[in-house]
Structures are given as C-alpha cells and as structure tokens.
Amino acid sequence: MGPPLQHVCGIAIGYCEARAVIIRRDATTNAIGQPSLVASESGARSTPCAVALGGTGECVVGDAALSQAAKNPAATVPRALSCLPHSNDDEGALKARLATHGAGKVEIDGATLQLAKTVWDEDGEETEVTAALSGSDVVAKIFGELRTRVADTLGADAKEVLCCVLAAPSDILADTVSRKALLDAAAQAGLRILQVVDEGDSVASFAAQDDVACDSVVVLDVGGTRAKATSYTRHATGILERAKCQDDASLSGDAFTSCLYVFAATFLRRRQKIDVDTGGARAKRKLRDACARAAKLLANGAAQADVEADALVD
C-alpha cells in the first residue's frame, strides 16, 4: 500500500450546478483537515452546469455559457447532465429531454449534439462555427472546469490526475448507460474517481454520524428540476437503508422560477404596459434568465432579489 493521499477532492454535480471541495491531510500530524469550498471563476459557491460554443469555436463553461443563452440558444446547453445517454434511448427521447432542460434549439444527430453559432469578422463577413459533442464530451467540459479550479487552489500541475469522490443525482447513477457515460466524462477530464455516491445517501450518512442515537434520517433535496424527500432507516447493525423516496416537480427550482416569471410578466404588462410576448422567444428567454438569477439569490438566503432584464421589446 502506498503513502496516504495528501489531498482529495469532492465533486457534487447536479442538473443545474456543480460544486467542488478540497480536503487536505496535514503532512506533519497526518490529521485530516476540514473541507474547503472551491470558488467558481466568478467567485460564486457553485458553477452552472452550462456549456456553450464561443465565437472562435471553443467551448465556454459556467456563467460565460449562460450569459449567451438568450442570444445563441442553438449553441448553448444549459444543463449538461441532460445530454447523457440513457438505457433504451433514441434520438426522439434525447430531443425531448433537451427541450425539457432548456436546450430545445440544439440540433442532434443520433446521440451527438451539433452546436452552431453565427459570428461576424472585422470585415462584416458572416461565418458559422460548429462543434459536434457527445453527452460525455459536454459533461467533461464541466468536470474540466472544476478540475482547473481545484488545481489552481492546490497549486498542482494542470496535467496531474486528480483523485476525487463524486456525488451525482440518483436517476443518473441508477441507469447503467448514464453512469458509464458520467464516469467516462470524469476520466476524460483527468479525474480519478475513488468512489461514486448518491447525493441523498451522502447527506444521510453524514447526518447519521453526527447523531448516532437517531433511528431515521429524512433528506429533503430541492433541486432545479424536482424536489425529492428520501427517508432512511437505521438497522441494529448501524447501517442506513433507504426506506422511501418521493419527488415532486412542482416544488423544484424550475417551478419557483416559473412562478417568478409569471409574476414579472404580469407586473410588466399591468404596471408598465410592456407585453413580453410581443418581444418573441428571445424576450421571454431573457426575462426567464433574469428570474432564474433572482430565484438563485433567494435560494441562497438573500432577503430580496431584483429581476433585471433590459431591451425586452422595442
């Protein structure tokens, strides 16, 4: 057996956001330190799981990708995990899944996403840049961004393989095809996965460790696409077992964003005589993106948040 790892990374990836933490081991005392959160490029606690095609044909990730979603919906994937293949999947199922997660304008060819964006050079000449990516390629972009942030924090070599524990949604892990594609994406990004855990299971195990006398644990996970409540029961052996799980899409972050959108659109129509519908799909997307940003601020504990969107209509 080799020497113990001096640091390990924990990555939690969901449909909307991904987070990374680092746990270090003291080289002198060999004691394990407290986990420290790795900030995103914008300094936030999490990185949006969005990938988009840039103006020169390169892929941009996170906030940079979301910022161009309204202008370039055919070149933006707001939720990378929606691209992963599933068992018994076909082109129609993938297309429907992408539409559900805000990427309905992206063209697909079989299991490959065809991102396309029109750009103009200094002479005003129009050029179309394209990129063909598989589901694993898209998710690998997210992992690659997180890996770069972790390496910068550690001061490690950018080419060094990084050991990590990965937490992912239960529906991805339960499907053998999706799970394999997720692990392939991690390996492509230079991550060595030591263990894969379900998000709810990991939270329940930590809660049970803090209170050894508890007989049951309930984990409420309010995600972007659904809210899920999972109950766990502790056996006499001390092992937790999942007893029951129930989810409800009407309590999700998307549902909250939709309520904000309806409120904002109604407010603009009644108070300022601005009908967002006359602005077309682009105006609706801009307002919805603004509502999503406000919903995220409120979810993170802010007392209030402003919905700011300009140039919705002429």
Short description, anyone?
This protein has helices at residues 63-66, 91-100, 135-154, 170-174, 176-188, 199-210, 253-271, 280-299; strands at 7-13, 17-24, 36-37, 47-48, 51-53, 59-61, 76-77, 107-109, 112-120, 126-134, 162-168, 191-198, 216-222, 227-234, 240-248. By secondary structure, the chain is of the alpha+beta class. It starts with 6 loop residues before the first strand and ends in a 15-residue tail after the last helix.
What does this structure look like?
By secondary structure, the chain is an alpha+beta fold. It has 8 helices and 15 strands. It has helices spanning 63-66, 91-100, 135-154, 170-174, 176-188, 199-210, 253-271, 280-299; strands spanning 7-13, 17-24, 36-37, 47-48, 51-53, 59-61, 76-77, 107-109, 112-120, 126-134, 162-168, 191-198, 216-222, 227-234, 240-248. Strands 1, 2, 3, 4, 11 and 12 form a 6-stranded mixed beta sheet that branches. A 3-stranded antiparallel beta sheet has the order 6-5-7. A hairpin with a 4-residue loop joins strand 13 and strand 14. The radius of gyration is 21 Å and the shape is globular.
